[in-house]
Amino acid sequence: MGDDRETPSTGRVGRGQRATLRIRAFTLVSAAVALFLLAKVNAGGTAEGFFSPWWGVLALAVLFAVSELMVVHFQVGRSAHTMSVIEATFVIALFHATPTVAFTAQVVGCGVVLVVHRHQRSTKLLFNLAMFALENQLAFAVFRALTSNSNRDSMPSPGDWPAAFAAAGSFTVVGAVLVFVVIYLAEDSPVFRDVLNTIRVSLLTSVVMASVGIAAATLLELSPATALLFAVPIVGLYVTNQTFVRAQRRSEELEFLRGASARLLGEDLAEQTLWAVLEAARAEFRVELIQFDYLSTDDSSWRRVSFRRGQPPSSVVVEDPALAGVCPSSALLITNASTSADALSKEIAAREIGEDVLVAPVRVRGDISGVLVVAQPSTEVVSFGTEDLRLAEMLATQLASAMENARLEQSVAEFRQLETKLVFELQHDPLTGLLNRASFARRVREVISRVHGNRTNAVVFIDLDDFKPINDVYGHAAGDQVLKTVGQRLLGSIRPHDLASRFGGDEFVVFVNPVASRDEAVEAANRLLSIIRQPVVIDDNQIVNPGASVGIAISSPDDTYEAILERADAAMFRAKKRGKGHVEVLDPTMDDAVRRAYELEIELHGALSRGELQLVYQSVHRLSTLAVVGYECLLRWSHPELGVLLPDKFMPTGLGADVQRAVRRFVCEQLSASASALTRVPDARTWSINLGAGQILDETLVEDLTTLAGQPDFGPGRLRVEIAEPAFSRSAESVIARTDALRQAGIGLIVDDLRIDGLNLSLLERANPVEVKLSQSLVRDLGHRRAASPFVRSVVELGRDVGFAVVAKGIEDSSTAQLAQELGCALGQGYLFARPATVDEISSQAALRRT
């Protein structure tokens, strides 16, 4: 058995040098063991055999040489190996040659073949000679140990056959083991499974070859001339094997080319495709390295894709495609690249990829667009053949077809991209990338035409506030930047089924599809408004804070696009009239009451801006001393036509959240402005603000009130919120959760307007208020309704246990005040003590009391 294993390329010199040193050391050990066995086997003396004369030694050496030439090649991993008919020759030598003659003949005969025919270099040649010597003498030792035949030109008897089979088997096993040990030393990787597979196949061959050798040795004893007939089946076997190998090789090539063609022509010429094809080509050529330099169609740069056995594929940009400039016109085999003087060989040698290299040009439309390089390792090579050269040419042709196909596909893709771009520009605003007005109208009409049942949509009309000053102050380029940023924000915040459009100028429209309710549409509009309000950075790092007024139109089943858009536009103008940054809704299904509420909201916004709302204060007194302990803040609207209105007339339950927030903030501002004067009132310790359920659940409430309570004029625990019992009962869990947050900020809860048929006392206990105010009707019924007094006593008792004070509200005469005090109420409020007054009136009254 010989070995044609590939060793690492010179690109990994350090690793290769260490492997060579290990192999040489192992070779010396093998040779020493072989010489030791030779001495041992010859120590007992041996008889002269048929091949003992000089011509016999020469004849046996020729037989060994011919056997080494008649080899069968096979592949293990990246290492090539060979099996020969040498076992038959060795068995003949067992019976008709001395160990010394057999040793000399095999080393000389096989060595000549390795040097002359295989061109093996020193390291591998020395290892193979040491292997031949060791397997030869070890097998001789096995044979001598199992038989008494000592090569005396006697007829091989059946008793000698087992020893011959054992010797041939040991000859094969030793050779296989030595080869794989060298593979391990060279690659630092275990190959035990390959060892077992190779030994199994080799042993079968050795049995056949040993049988042939025994028969030949027998005939050689009977008739030397007749033994020559064994050359016929051996040569026939060799020729048959070579024919099979060529056919198998051709089949593998065709299968490889078919697979490569399917990949290269059936997919884009992406690097992943090249990697797959080059890996398959590396295995087919049985080489370590394949490189492909090609002109990329993406950016017109030269790239190099390399695939080396045992390493991941690599792809790099080639700064100087020198190989393409010196590439031959057709596939070419370069041998001994480092010693050649031509430009192509120099370029190959500079890459340090091997001595024997196949180079094949890849031509597209007559120009070299790529170069395929197939490299053997730099040492211990087997020369490429004509079939390898032909295969490289065919692969280069397929790569050229794939590259031309890729260029055609790229041209088609570029045309399609241009077509897509033109269609996009026809349908979209060039500045913001949003749908233009015509495309938006067409697509909304399509959606409306498909709407069935009660499914509704909404159109949100957005008009930027104070956009003209941005153009005037910063220039039109800055204005364009603001419009572009707003458009991108809208596009990034809408849902997949929604549509966004720029209508022109500073107007944008969003189609929300679908919406489940009016509140969902308002929530979507507020979200878009908050996104628009985020600062925009323009040139020179200037900051612009855009704002917008928003109108919403809710669709109905019979609506047309024009009708919805008209309502959204009208709602936007109403938002503008209320002031900047507002959201208005127009819903065709609104009944008269809702419409009146809507109109009231608009009026309230106007009243706030015109200063028609006013804050007055009604004092709360201790019943035992009549001292002022606090004030309740009460809102009044001085309507220009209807006179002074109380909150129950202009703050209904369904009032919009934005106007409720605006009113609450107005109350906080007025109270803050009056705090300094109110703190000078003797014994006045607390101030309370009335809130509805909608206001108490507003997400900005805690922040607003915490800011107010944190002012120096207030101090901890002086600010309180009043929630009417009906509103508290409807949203008890949510209100309790929100008041817990207020309580942590030092703001107390007052449950207002408690009635007999109202709040569950257990729920009152959970609310943990600081005060509970009895409703005015309940206080008036204290002397007339039998159930009133027991109910008040129970509330007072609960207050003592839980820790809240009870306030009798609406006291207008002294008898009611006395009865309330007798029932346990600590505090009272009503016209008997004081009417609601402005902060100036309260200050004057306090001054009079001090004098």
Rg over CA atoms, rounded to whole Å, is: 51 Å
Percent of residues in beta strands? 15-25%
Give the low-confidence spans: 1-13, 74-81, 378-382
Summed over residues and divided by their number, the pLDDT gives a mean of: 78
Instruction: Label the structural class.
Output: alpha/beta
**Shape type:** elongated
* Helix count, DSSP H or I runs of 4 or more residues: 30
Per DSSP E runs of 2 or more residues, the count of β-strands stands at 25
**Percentage of residues assigned to helices:** 55-70%
Sheet with the most strands? Answer: 8 strands, mixed, barrel
Spatial arrangement of strands, main beta sheet: 17-18-20-21-22-23-24-25
N- to C-terminal separation? Answer: 129 Å
List keywords for this structure.
single chain, 851 residues, alpha/beta, 8-stranded mixed β-barrel, 6-stranded antiparallel beta sheet, 30 helices, 25 strands, 18% strand, elongated, disordered N terminus
